[in-house]
Write a structure and sequence with these properties.
The protein has 85 residues and is α+β, with helices and mostly antiparallel strands. Helix content is 27%, strand content 33%. The N and C termini lie far apart (34 Å).
Length: 85
C-alpha cells in the first residue's frame, strides 16, 4: 500500500511546531507508520466521537481517515492530560 496523503489542521501544525525535537521525531515516525498501513492499522476510536487516537509517548494524535481515497486528516495533537478537553 502506498503512503497516505496527510492533511494537517492549523491546530495540529501550531502545537506540533512547539514540541521538543525528540517528541516531534517520535510523532513523525508514528504518522509515517500510520500513513503507510492505513488500511490494516489497529485504529482506536474515541468514545462518542468520529475521530481516532494514536499514542506517541505521553502525547496523543487525534485523526480521521478516508480509506477509499487514502487520506489521513491530522486534527490535533497534545499531551494526554489535555488533548481530549
Amino acid at each position: 500500500m502506498s503512503q497516505a496523503t496527510e492533511i494537517y489542521s492549523r491546530e495540529f501544525d501550531s502545537v506540533f511546531l512547539k514540541l521538543p525535537p525528540r517528541i516531534r521525531e517520535l510523532v513523525e515516525a508514528k504518522i509515517r507508520d500510520l500513513g503507510s498501513h492505513l488500511a490494516d492499522f489497529p485504529h482506536r476510536r474515541l468514545k462518542g466521537r468520529s475521530e481516532y487516537r494514536l499514542r506517541a509517548g505521553d502525547y496523543r494524535i487525534i485523526y480521521e481517515f478516508d480509506r477509499a481515497r487514502n487520506i489521513l486528516y491530522l486534527i490535533a495533537i497534545g499531551h494526554r492530560r489535555e488533548v481530549y478537553r
